[in-house]
Design goal:
about 375 residues; alpha/beta; Rossmann fold; 7-stranded parallel beta sheet; 6-stranded parallel beta sheet; 13 strands; globular
């Protein structure tokens, strides 16, 4: 089988969509090495986080027009390359499919991660919302198979795409192997010293933007002795957090980190007392399962997708915009013995293991080709 992937995020994105794309290709190439996996990348790679295996073939624009207009190649002209390469299935990994793919004999699959732009339009420019929605509709209307990364996202596709629930399959995200490894005390200490981490700390991972709601954690620990480590790219929202920290003399309480390697991040997880993830809305919430694999307790939002990822043995906040409620939950988790919940959560998170996810994807691909 020849499977083609939209590889833009693989080679140009270091966070959510990039990690999802790299992990999917990696596990498919590992568990089903007999296939060939074509990675269609519109531009010169900027991110080198995928180890290219012999059964992976990286493809880039070849014609002068395609090289000059890589976005046009990715959105339309690529179909000629797919036909030339005799691709059996083309998989749009981030809610997009090239125009005209329906007219070819190539089967298509699209992954929809979220429709946040529909839930929180104020976070997006009007023109961007229109573009995202148009791409979403085009993808779900033309794909042979539609995959959502969670039941939450599936419900949104049904609502905003006017589709039947039976038209959409849920296949969860996996988690990079680096978060499942055990690291030595020496390795962890090196990371602790490199980033000047405190002995004990609360962890939050994710881009520092309003929807992720990290300011509520900072407000929750005001006047306490808790230390907080915020790992993620800064946006304008980070300035609000920094302003609050300065006004309340919390500079020694809160540490900002960016640019960690995945291995360093895994050790930062394992050294934390807990992950606090008070995001208002997500398509899934990958830091949650990274934390569960790291065997630390998780505090997160009781509403939306979060219980899907965190499971029945994590800790939940009813109103993640209420710092007092977050503080009460932090106090509870910090003071109690969490060993049993951590063990049960670790058992729960095994449902996201690579072999299970790879098997689900291969079943979908094979059923698609066989007409089931």
């Amino acid at each position: 089988m020849k499977i083609g992937y939209d590889a833009k995020r693989i080679f140009h994105n270091t966070t959510g969509l990039g990690n999802y794309s790299r992990d999917l290709v990696r596990i498919m190439a590992h568990y089903f090495p007999e296939n060939k996996y074509y990675l269609y990348n519109p531009k010169k790679p900027k991110v080198n986080r995928l180890s290219i295996q012999p059964n992976m073939i990286v493809k880039q624009p070849e014609t002068i027009l395609s090289k000059f207009l890589p976005s046009l190649w990715r959105s339309k002209l690529i179909t000629k390359d797919l036909q030339k390469d005799k691709i059996d299935i083309y998989h749009g990994l981030s809610a997009e499919l090239p125009a005209g793919i329906k007219k070819t004999k190539i089967k298509s699959v699209v992954t929809i991660h979220d429709l946040i732009f529909q839930h929180f339009p104020e976070l997006y420019k009007p023109i961007d919302r229109k573009i995202y929605f148009k791409k979403f509709l085009s993808a779900v209307q033309n794909a042979d198979r539609i995959v959502a990364i969670s039941e939450q996202t599936k419900a949104d596709i049904v609502k905003f795409g006017n589709l039947a629930p039976g038209d959409i399959k849920v296949i969860y995200q996996g988690c990079h192997q680096v978060f499942k490894e055990n690291y030595s005390p020496i390795e962890k200490q090196e990371v602790r010293e490199k980033y000047n981490l405190p002995g004990e700390y609360i962890l939050n991972v994710g881009t520092l933007e309003p929807r992720k709601n990290a300011l509520s954690i900072v407000q929750a620990i005001k006047g306490t002795e808790y230390s907080l480590v915020l790992v993620g790219r800064k946006t304008g929202y980070a300035k609000l957090i920094e302003k609050y920290i300065l006004e309340n003399q919390m500079q020694k309480q809160v540490i900002f980190l960016e640019g960690l390697s995945l291995k360093e991040l895994a050790m930062v997880y394992q050294m934390a007392r807990m992950l606090v993830y008070p995001s208002i809305f997500e398509g899934f919430g990958i830091p949650i399962i990274e934390a569960l694999y790291s065997k630390i307790p998780v505090i997160t939002n009781k509403k939306g997708v979060f219980p899907e990822a965190a499971g029945p043995y994590s800790y939940y906040v009813n109103d993640v915009t209420d710092p007092l409620e977050i503080k009460e939950k932090i106090d509870e988790v910090w003071s109690k013995n969490n060993e049993e919940n951590i063990r049960k959560s670790y058992d729960f998170v095994q449902k996201f293991n690579d072999d299970k996810i790879a098997s689900q994807w291969m079943n979908l691909y094979q059923n698609l080709l066989s007409g089931k």
